[in-house]
Amino acid sequence: METKKTLISIIVPVYNTEKYIERCLDSVMKQDYPNFEVILVNDGSTDESGIIIQKYKEMYENISYIKQENKGVGAARNAGIKVAKGDYISFVDSDDLIMEDYCSHLLSIIGDADIAVAGREKYIDNVYDKSKTPSQVITVSGMEALKFQMIGKYNTRPAWGKLYKRNIVEDVSFVEDCIFEEVRYSAETFLKAEKVIFANKDLYSYRIRPNSIMTSNEQKRVKELAIALIYVYKILVEDGRYCECKREFEMWLAHTIIQNTQIYCEQAVDTKVFKKYVGELVKLYYKGSI
Fold it and tell me: For 230-288, how does the pLDDT look when each residue is reduced to its tens digit (9 = 90+)?
């Protein structure tokens, strides 16, 4: 049974979020669970984010501050993991918010599970969507959670909004300088987990910014999502577990091919990039369907 002595490490990568980071950190520091540390990793911000981080570090003893040159969110999270002291690890993006019972609720339900997944709401200009929260607490195997990720069910695809037992993340690193580093990371941690539990409560608020990394540069998105899916396929085959999730993976491939074709038709992607990377997904789809 977990107690209030159990330490949670919350890792927050920061890059040019001066407009949002104070609200984010206020939500983190208002946790009703007392025993947590916050690791802020400034990934080469060029705005006032660094000044804001320093202010909060001086206000709270449980905040650590890491500065690094800009290497991407994956590298920032890796840097945070290296210094984390917690029994559990959680990631929060610096433009998002967590509820005051985020830590306490996830810790209360995790039990002997390896990962606890928060319900989440997303919002654009204060318009909220709570479609990623189950109606009741659900406990599944790591493979079932991976299948959920493949079909986009619940809050499975991002790295944030989860409580990981330390041993689950110790040997898994984020790919650096990659938009879809979370696709690989979530897949690898679910494969490593014996049991995953899903909260039936909205504990994480995910902000969608029009100019964010994930809503810009369609050409890079097409390329790197294809690379990420091919990577997931390879580790499934290497582990001898592809047959367990073949149907769901093919659904994921088909959806991605259709989505990227639509992007191409809207003339947001170079023809060579489209043919190379979407072509590889088509080949993989038919290879897996044999």
Answer: 899 999 999 999 999 999 998 998 888 777 676 666 665 566 766 676 677 777 766 65
- Token couple for 55: 């202010």
What are the boundaries of each domain within the chain?
8-207, 217-289
Q: What is the pLDDT of residues 192-205, one digit of tens each?
A: 999 999 999 999 99
Q: 40 by DSSP, 3-state: which? A: strand
Q: Single out the residue of 110, 99, 126 nearest to residue 28, CA to CA.
A: 99
Distance CA 193, CA 165 (A): 9
- Burial class of residue 153, CB neighbours in 10 A (0-12, 13-18, 19+): middle
pLDDT classification of 55: cutoffs 50, 70, 90: very high
16, 45 Cβ separation under 8 angstroms? yes
The stretches of 193-245 forming alpha helices (DSSP H) are: 218-238
Rounded-to-integer distance, Cα 107 and Cα 93, Å:
20
Class (C level, CATH) for 8-207: alpha beta
